[in-house]
Amino acid sequence: MATEPEPQGPARRTPPAQTARTAAASGALRTASGLVAGRAAPAVARGLPTRSGESTPDWLEPAMAANGIGSFDWDIRHDVLEGDPRACAILGLAADRFDRSSAAFLAMLHPEDAPVVRRRVERAVTELGQCGAYYRTVFPGGEMHAARFRGRVLADAFGRASRMVGFVWDATVELHKRVRAGELAALREERSRFIKEAARALSEAVTVRDVARVFTELPLPGLPPDGLVLASLEAGRLQILGATGYRPEDMHPYDRSPIVASHPAAEAIRTRGPVVIASRDEYRERYPEAWPRVSETGRSAWVFLPLVASGRVIGVCLVSFDDDRELDADERTLLATLGGLVAQSLARARLHDAEHELAAGLQRVMLPRTVPSVPGVTTTVRYLAAGSGLQIGGDWYDVVPLPGGHVGLVIGDVQGHDVHAAGIMGQLRIALRAYAAEGHPPAAVMARASRFLADLDTDHFATCLYAEVNIDYGVVYAVRAGHLDPVVRRADGSTAVVPVVGGLPLGVASDEEYRVTRFSLDPGETVVLCTDGLVEARGMDLDTGFARLCEAVSRDLPARGESAADPLDVLADRIASQAADSTEREDDIALLLLRWDGPAGGLAAQQLRRRIGQADLARISELRGELRDALRRWGVPELVDTAELLASELVTNAIRHTDRDAMFTARLYRDPEQGGGARLRIEVEDESDLWPTRRTPGEQASSGRGLMLVEALADGWGVEPRGSGKRMWFELSAEPEGPAA
Fold it and tell me: Where is this region: Disordered (predicted)?
């Protein structure tokens, strides 16, 4: 407790006589050992002398006794303290055992009060004036007490300070008031701090579950609850969101149950005001129908707070105590304020949860429910949403089974994070899937999708990567529209980013033409496709993100059969877990993985079958590349040059001279009886009845040598009729490998 401030009077000029008295008083102070040591304190006396030394008037003694006031007399020069019994009692001393030195008495004072008393006494002695102070003392039993004194300095015949006389009275009641006031001030400060911290914690709560967790962990200062329950109001029923201090079996009868009109929670909802119940008897008297169930909980006081937000009651929170509790005005205000904070936070969280569920449902509808199972490959997908509420992204993935032993992989990202972007994503996914299923080559699929998005006129664009995988022999034809390059995990566990020729994002230019990049997979190798949320974030550039992705992809995986989960799912979970643990992620993530398993034995199927459109001359170049890859995989690389040349001639003749599509088929046959020798048969079918004619072109002719080349280089060739059209074919033989040297 701080002592009262020292009185300060107005400044004035000191007359010469007063200066002489001050010097004389200073000499007297030097003779008092207590003051010389810097100490001074009130003393007790057996009477109150006047300035002339006469005794206390008879009429004053009864008044002092009636008011519990003691008197003191301090001989300044000899440092002798005298007092009456009442003064000793006020100070907690026995009159016959009182040490009459001021130094010993100062030791009884509170360390904070002693300097104040000393300064005020010294000033009074110097100025021959009056002084007073409030100070605390400790009784011999250890109790803290307080006293006030008022004294006046008397001068001798020479004008020197010789005595201080005055009164002392008990101020312990005032001490208790000050202590109580200090405690209340500290409690109010603590409660104010609690409200600020609770408001901050509730403002950071995003979901209803977060609000329930924060509420049930709140420590009410000065009002520690023994039970807390938070319940929302849904269609006239209470749904328990969180509780502490109660057993689950106590809460179960109330969860999702209709509100009974006789229950105090119903009254709080009806009146929109808190319902305070101070004791068990009061509960039994006010709510007799609800009492039997409540009596088993062991609580003795309850406060039901209605949660009102936007003028509507959305729930109730319960604060209960194990003992009887009468709440004062401050405590009721604290609980009412807390109820308002919880109501606003709960209303915001319920809106967030509803928006998030709507967004998640919309996104689930837009994305494929399941990834189709395609023989020869294994696929898996992951989706990690980063937005909250309606802040959903336009990321998507798709797996499209295609005719002719192919499968299409799609990964993309529509610009923006809102419902509009998600709607565009759904339209674009369906359109791109339709284009791919129609059998268009990858470049045409991407070009048509770009025109489709541009025609929507939405001011949105999208990045996308479309990859067509030949399941028979593991060749990938990839087209990229402003998207990320794919990552491939090789059979030896190494990882590399495969560069794919890129074009503009979809929807930027309706006439954009895209180029195809072809790369091959060995059995067991995996293609990883992702959106930019996986490799780009605040504080992480693209190179760092790709390095982290490659490191995660290249780590060891269990072999198939070693664990219950497929190694591809283990890899997908590893990548998704690393992304989910990152605090820098701000974007959604779509992840698509495909592993080419290949046929049994790890060898590619030894047949290649393709349809070449009459107007799709560029497809002939792609066919030559596929044939080269197939022959190398089939183990007959020595046939590549001849087979590529002759196949190109036959296909070109078919689509140029018949005005029809052509069907190309390449098969490799092996004869075990001839030491494993291989025979390649290539067929080109068309629907024209016009048979080819062998010509003899001149030296300057630019065409007409196709059949001449076939006849000269093939081991055998011919033309066969079909039901409608014809089939041209040729065969090449490969010598069996000789024994190792």
Answer: 1-27
Q: For residue 94, is pLDDT > 80?
A: no
Q: How far apart are CA 739 and CA 741, in angstroms?
A: 6
Tokens in use for 438?
A: 């129609």
Give the residues across from 372 on adjacent strands.
Answer: none
Q: Which residues contact 177 (CB under 8 A, 6 or more apart)?
A: none
Residue type, 387: G
Q: Write out the H or E segment, with its range, that includes residue 623.
A: helix 618-633
Buried b vs exposed e over 224-252: b needs ≥16 C-beta within 10 Å? ebbbbbbbbbeeeebbbbbbbbbeeebee
DSSP H helical ranges for 217-279: 248-251, 264-271
Q: Which of 461-475, 618-632, 724-738 has the lowest mean pLDDT?
A: 724-738
Instruction: State the burial class of residue 541 (Cβ atoms within 10 Å of its Cβ: 0-12, 13-18, 19+).
Output: exposed
Residue 619 pLDDT class (50, 70, 90 cuts): confident
Strands 462-470 vs 406-414: parallel, antiparallel or unpaired: antiparallel
**Do β-strands 607-612 and 716-721 pair in parallel, antiparallel, or remain unpaired?**
unpaired
DSSP run (H or E) holding 162: strand 161-170
Q: 42: how many CB neighbours lie within 10 A of its CB? A: 32
Handedness of CA 162, 166, 172, 174 (dihedral sign): negative
User: What does residue 131 show for φ and ψ, rounded to 5 degrees?
Assistant: -155, 165
Chain-centroid distance, C-alpha 386: 10
Name which of 505, 529, 494, 501 is nearest 516 in CA terms.
501
- pLDDT bucket at 361, cuts 50 / 70 / 90: low
Residue 524 and residue 597 in contact, taking contact as beta carbons nearer than 8 Å = yes
What residue spans of 457-541 are helical by DSSP H? none
- Cβ–Cβ < 8 Å for 265, 294: no
Alpha helices in 228-328, H assignment, sequence order:
248-251, 264-271, 280-286, 291-294
Name the pLDDT band for 410 (thresholds 50, 70, 90): very high
CA distances from 518 to 36, 181, 466 (A): 104, 84, 12
**227: nearest Cα among 301, 160, 283:** 301
- Map tokens 């003992």 to a residue: 323
Query: What tens digit of pLDDT does each residue of 111-166 get?
Result: 888 888 888 888 988 888 899 888 888 787 778 888 888 889 998 888 888 888 88
What pLDDT, in 10s, does the model give residues 287-336?
Answer: 998 898 888 888 899 999 999 988 889 899 998 888 888 887 888 888 88
d(CA 577, CA 568): 14
* Residue 604 binned pLDDT confidence (cut-offs 50, 70, 90): low
Contact 502, 494 (CB under 8 A): no
Two structure tokens written together for 338: 């807390």
Complete DSSP assignment for 338-372: HHHHHHHHHHHHHHHHHHHHHHHHHHHHHS-SSPP
User: With bands split at pLDDT 50, 70 and 90, how would you rate the model's confidence at 485?
Assistant: very high
* Mean of pLDDT over the chain: 79
Amino acid letter for position 262: S
Structure tokens at 202: 């509730």
Strand partners, 726: 686, 721
